[in-house]
Amino acid sequence: MSTILISEFITSQALDTLCSRHDVIYEPDLYKDRPALIAAVQNIDALVVRNLTQVNEEVLNASPVLKVVGRLGVGLENIELPACAKRNIKVIPATGANAESVAEYVVGAAVALTRGFIPATMATLKGEWPRPRFSGYHEFLGQTLGIVGFGSIGRVVAKKAHAFGLQCIAYDPMLSDDAVKLEEYSVPLLTLSELLSRSHAVSLHLPYLPETKNLFNAVTLDQMKEGACLINTARGGIVDELALADRLRSGRIGGAAIDVFSSEPAKDLSHFEGIENLILTPHIAGVTHESNERVSQMIADEVNRYLGALK
Fold first, then answer.
1. Of these residues, 200, 235, 247, 294, which one is catalytic?
2. CA distance 91 to 85
3. Cβ within 8 Å of residue 101, ≥6 positions away
4. Separation between Cα atoms, residue 179 and residue 172, nearest integer Å
5. H or E segment at 40?
6. Is-contact 97 294, C-beta < 8 A?
7. Is 162 a catalytic site residue?
8. For position 75, what pLDDT does the model report?
9. C-alpha distances in Å from residue 305, one per residue of 70, 93, 176
10. Which of 71, 155, 200, 283 is catalytic?
11. 107 alpha-carbon distance from chain centroid
């Protein structure tokens, strides 16, 4: 029987799935205590984490029999992949399991920003009644949504946005075609600059890599359509927050929904203070009751399958 360590939250059903076949150590706050984590990994066959457990050389050196790391999510920035590959340790992300939740967040945020729901709420709370001001905002129907990164999540976003009557366009450096066929319609693939110049809202779905770090900097942001909105549910380091705040404050960019930050948990977001049409959330786009169940169960099943195949 293999030993599995789970250092962050997993759902009870998925936990039961793992416990039915293996010895499981479940300590969902272990990631906070680095010395205790290092001690706990010494004789485990599998490690299951979210995004706060740093699976680096220190952890891997302390885990001589580790065979597999299950990631309860899709981002792999907290796992040193080359170090795992060198040790023949399998890394399993929950690809696609939270796509529906992220896509709902994106479309919901795009509607809220396009219609000005956030500043309208703040004005109404102050006792104002600024109907004429908000009659100048636009319908969502007929707008263009630019999707930067057109993998599994980006394609679910496109399907939901299409149902709202949005025109979707995409940029993805990994794709070489002119368009991607989705059911009965196609999404054109453009260059990044073309996409930015045409989009009323831009949604980011890229991994954090050296080539995507600060991809949305002052120069890139200034290529966006005047008054367009930016939605980032990907990774915080992709967007230069100070440059974005400046353009939101000036009105050059019309609004933003930011779910991920360059440093998490985000402690100082004072550069965003006083900006009206802005949604800030604590990395929750892909986290719902349903997505937690799907992510947890997928990783439990895949870890079971992988360990079973090694016997």
1. 235
2. 9
3. 285, 286, 287, 288, 290, 291
4. 11
5. helix 34-40
6. yes
7. no
8. 85
9. 12, 14, 34
10. 283
11. 14
- Give yes or no: 264 in active site: yes
CB–CB of 98/156 below 8 Å?
Answer: no
Catalytic residue among 57, 264, 290, 305: 264
- Per DSSP, 189 falls in state B
E strand residue ranges, the chain: 3-6, 23-26, 46-49, 68-71, 90-93, 144-148, 167-171, 179-182, 185-188, 201-204, 229-232, 255-258, 278-280
DSSP of 119-160, one letter per residue? HHHHHHHTT---HHHHTTS--STT-EEEEES-SHHHHHHHHH
199: tokens are: 């989009």
pTM (whole model) above 0.85: yes
Q: Which residue has the tokens 């104002």?
A: 128
Residue 128 structure tokens: 């104002």
Query: pLDDT digit string (tens) for 32-47?
Result: 999 999 999 999 999 9
Q: Is 241 a catalytic residue?
A: no
Residue 293 tokens, joined: 């169940």
Structure tokens at 49: 């984490």
pLDDT in tens, 165-189: 999 999 999 998 899 999 888 999 9
- DSSP assignment of 240-261, as one string? -HHHHHHHHHHTSS-EEEE---
Q: How far apart are CA 147 and CA 172, in angstroms?
A: 9
What is the three-class DSSP state of 182?
strand
